[in-house]
Design brief:
Layout: H1 7-23, H2 30-39, H3 44-51, H4 58-70, H5 76-84, H6 89-100, H7 123-138, H8 146-155, H9 159-166, H10 171-178
């Protein structure tokens, strides 16, 4: 599959592994893929994220992804839905962290893994890579670029799509910008 990846897409995958290493995550997931996309400078996805106003709000996106990680993968929308049922996710996370330490619900580095050990991709991250390939093929393109990874992250519910939606970025918006439908400044 990786032989079809462009240099930009390969750089995103390597960058996602580096993000996992920096955050201490034992796995590479959707959040790491999104952060790696935001780190790109000259690529189709970087251009789209810039046009949508997300690149200059990278710190806000990173904070939102860190909160999702802290809550064990529960997005802000999920937490709000659970609050409607009387479940206070933040209180639960606080209690768990009080009992087991800060970040107890975050995907921690597995025991015995230190330094630059290879981190496995989560099932969700693998699904993003497969979806990106399907998107590229469906668009009649021979190679998978970082723009396909961005489209794949926004195409289905997940932590990256939820955080991007909170920042005004949806699949339709990304597709519009990639197809040259103009630039929009996200507020």
């Amino acid at each position: 599959m990786f032989e079809k990846f462009t240099a930009d897409a390969r750089a995103v995958v390597r960058g996602a592994a580096q993000q996992a290493e920096r955050t201490g995550s034992g796995t590479v997931g959707e959040p790491e893929l999104l952060l790696a996309l935001l780190d790109r400078a000259e690529s189709p996805a970087a251009t789209a994220l810039g046009a949508l106003g997300v690149r200059e709000r990278r710190a806000s996106v990173a904070r939102a992804l860190a909160e999702v990680r802290r809550r064990g993968g529960i997005t802000a929308q999920d937490a709000a839905a659970l609050a409607g049922l009387g479940i206070d996710v933040d209180e639960i996370v606080t209690r768990v962290e009080r009992a087991h330490g800060a970040g107890a619900l975050a995907a921690a580095r597995p025991a015995g893994r230190r330094g630059r050990a290879r981190r496995p991709f989560t099932a969700e991250a693998k699904a993003v890579l497969e979806r990106a390939l399907r998107i590229a093929v469906g668009r009649g393109e021979r190679h998978l670029g970082d723009e396909h990874l961005l489209l794949a992250l926004t195409a289905r519910p997940g932590p990256a799509a939820a955080v991007l939606a909170d920042h005004g970025v949806t699949y339709a918006e990304v597709l519009r910008v990639l197809e040259g439908g103009g630039r929009r400044r996200a507020s």
